[in-house]
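Study the following:
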Amino acid sequence: MSITLFTPATGYPDLEIKIAYGLARVGIEAYEAEKVSIKENVGFYSVTIDIKEDEFENLERFFNILVKRLLSSSYIPFTTPGIGGRSAESLAAKESERFSLDNYKTTMFNAINKKSENICRHNNGSVGNIIGFAVATSYHQRRDGIDISFQQNVPRRPTNPKNICKTCALIALLGIWYASFIFNVAKREIIAIPIPKGEIKGTKLQEIFTLQHQVRREWINQEIPQILIPLIFLSKIPSSADILNGFDLFVAILSRQQGYHVDGLFLIPIDNYLSFIRANPYNIATIDNMMRKESYSALQELNYIIYNRVATYLPRFARLYVQETSTKDFTNLLYPETTKYLLKEVTMIKPEIIEDQAIGSLARTLRYFIKERKYSYADDIRNARKESNVFETTISKMMREGRLRLEQKERIHLPTDEEIKKVFRLANENFDSIKTALVILAFSFPARAEEEIIKGVQNA
């Protein structure tokens, strides 16, 4: 036996999941996590609690206890992004109020909202369905001021949100408080909420409720491009990789200008981000390096590569990373672990190519010139096409300069003629993979095995 509660199918994905999380939290407070599950349906969620039907009144009793315990003042609403002062006051649960869960026992029929009714189509009181509940109801930020009206010659942000019943509002607040990630990026306030792609239950729900408290009111002081916020947020909580597996992420970016504005919102899959983050700690360190140096061009390239799994831009990212994170005295290259991940998971290059000794030998020579800030060889190779002879010509030119440097007693490694011939032969068979692997390996620090070879040559 079980009791199933349904969200009201309002059409707002963030509001629906907030209500679902709120209902789930009530079930966990009243009973235990293993008895509670959330299931995604088309346009709404069902929350199932494994209890007898005659225990519904007990569930309602715990809901009212939870509301009175947490929401009897305006503190939580007022500290929730997207909820202003007046709205926060109206959301406080009064001592005399009692809230019912009867409306959630049945699914809502699909219908167009009437102007006079709440968007949840419940009749038990009304409060504004403000930005904090459903971001899409807001007026978005406009550079040309088109969303500004004048009242008594004073510019005002127009606001005419539809209403929602107070019970839904309080349940959504519980969902925000227990399951959303709230943090700041410079002057902007961010709400990120995990959107389940299937059914979640028990331990998974508890992990989500626990994880959000690690992030609440974190602060990123830098003004970063909006598109980078999901990746940077996830990199700050690497422990989230396993917990958030199987979720999408809804991210709302808010700013305060005569009330709250929505600067941006995303509803995105995060599987590729999580794969990158949990692969190895060097991937997170790569993001940290770019954040520390404010290397946003390189970071945006990486973000695009990871999210879309597009190999074309990988050599461009490697060059930008080295340029933007290096100093006058030190050329900062990619970590070999990050390089290997990007080559294997993004470009899908076979391990035998990545680990080929001839390619590694030629990459070592190319790396010498990169450290000298001479990027022309790497640029020509990455832009070369199979139908031209630019690839072969560039390598031959690089080898001539390399031999000259060697004659000048420079410490430069030169590949053998056999290794160069092998690279040309491999390029003839799989041109794009070979040139990409060659360039990316050159922009990377040498792996430990390669370092041992270099030391052996130098000590000989």
About this structure: The mean pLDDT is 87. The CA atoms of residues 403 and 409 lie 10 Å apart. The chain is about 50% helix and 15% strand.
